Amino acid sequence: MSRYKSEDEILAVVRSFENATIGRDEWKHAEHLLVALHYVEAFGLEAATNKMRSGIRNLLTNGFNVDLEKEMPYHETITVFWMRTAYAFLLMTPSLSSLERTNALVAGFDKEFPLRFYSRDLLFSEEARAAYVGPDLIQAGSLEEEIHRSMAPTV
Predict the structure, then answer these.
(1) Model pTM score
(2) What confidence score (pLDDT) does residue 153 get?
(3) 125 in the Ramachandran plot: left (φ > 0), alpha (ψ -120 to 50) or beta?
């Protein structure tokens, strides 16, 4: 079953993220992935990552009223990891429509996926929160292999 039913629904989520009007209870893992994929499709990896980074900070400040001087829920390593994952997924699924690709990404990658690459201690460290750090469990070049494994049908 597809989570998202139309391109308009995807664009509505992107707009609510960009306008910082999406509610905290609506801004979940799936919505992060949806916006990440939309951005890499539209802007390429580097520009999309910058746009996501600033968009999350805008949402925290203007949508969720978080004082970033007192609290910093933004996580750089997780943001970069998911942007790279969305980009790799985009490159590996050229025959899918944007809607199909979004639903496949959301269905195939849960929040625990980064822990295939990172130990919990490293991923949730202050260092990884503040700046991108590379994986300590699996080499970064194996992301595509892991994506293929995640997409493989389970027996």
Answers:
(1) 0.87
(2) 42
(3) beta
